[in-house]
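=== RUN LOG ===
request id: a7f3
mode: sequence -> structure
chains: 1
length: 365
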Amino acid sequence: MIHEHSRRQFLRTSSVASVGAIGALSGAAAGARAETRPIAWVAPKSPVSISSGNGLRAVERAVLRIGEGLDPVLGVVEGVGIVEADPDDMTVGYGGLPNERGVVQLDSSVMHGPTHKAGSVACIENIMHPAAVALKVLQTTDHVMIVGHGAYEFARAHGFPHEDLLTDKARRAWLRWKQTSSDRDDWLDPGQMDWNEEGTSVGLAGEVEPVPFTYGTIHCGAVDTSGNLSACTTTSGLSYKIPGRVGDSPIIGAGMYVDNQIGSAGATGRGEAVIQSCGSFAIVQAMEAGMDPTQACLHVLRKIVSNSKRQKRLMRDAERPDFNVVMYALRKDGVHGSAAMFPGARYAVADGVGARLEPCAALFE
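=== RESULT ===
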């Protein structure tokens, strides 16, 4: 068993080495900008796909379809589409938790490694599959991002149906949030009511269900047997957010990024923290500098914590943030990894051995 002192010394040494590697890479870029050669990673023998913990079905579908010859970008979009259409997953698409007005607003981005093209939509309403709309932006326009009503009209022009995304389950959750979010408004807390939702007098209510809350999101990345990469991140965003809020998911380089010579990366959790550290782009840079996928994820999480210390309201104590972020990384050769701020997170993987959940590394114990 490694002694605590030795373990901490190892982590400090690893961190310094990681920072040094990134610094060396940045220094080279700032200097003569000599031509860099692609790292000679060997493509995997079977397709590989990774996802957030809610994406087991997504990676299974992505690998199946890529194995049948589908382009990886089509495979990941088809995979996340399963979760977008699931009313029981309140983090994405249909059934996602709404904004503070009770409106479901969705964000998504897609990136195709071989062409280095990206497409994204933000604050799109009444469209169940924002990832497929982002793919249409990539395929049919010279734009990268379309937002709001413009994204809705673009989707409708491509035949996507208008759909009510607010399920009864999500609507009830939103009402509970409104009822409990303030003790100075005129909404009665559920525990103060003597009528149930059906309008029947029941006396004072008993135990009340907790209000669900989520940062939302599913990320999915994939690589085929030629070493071609693609990735997608899609979300219903922060629960009960200010209308119009955009998180990291539709922002290229924040919630998702692909470099076909290196790898792909994505994020779930507090989007503002990921945006302010260019999280997914930084992971791919770290892999280019020589870190393996898990090391790269941990490196970026350390940077996020360091940046967050400047905003005391975001910190649980002097060292630990009061929020979670999970990062995901897939290298061109199929090697993958993931890391979260805190223990207990898992990510989904599918490859030649099948689909499964694997534990994420943790920055803090």
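=== NOTES ===
Residues 1-37 have pLDDT under 50 and may be disordered.
The two ends are 16 Å apart (CA to CA).
=== END ===
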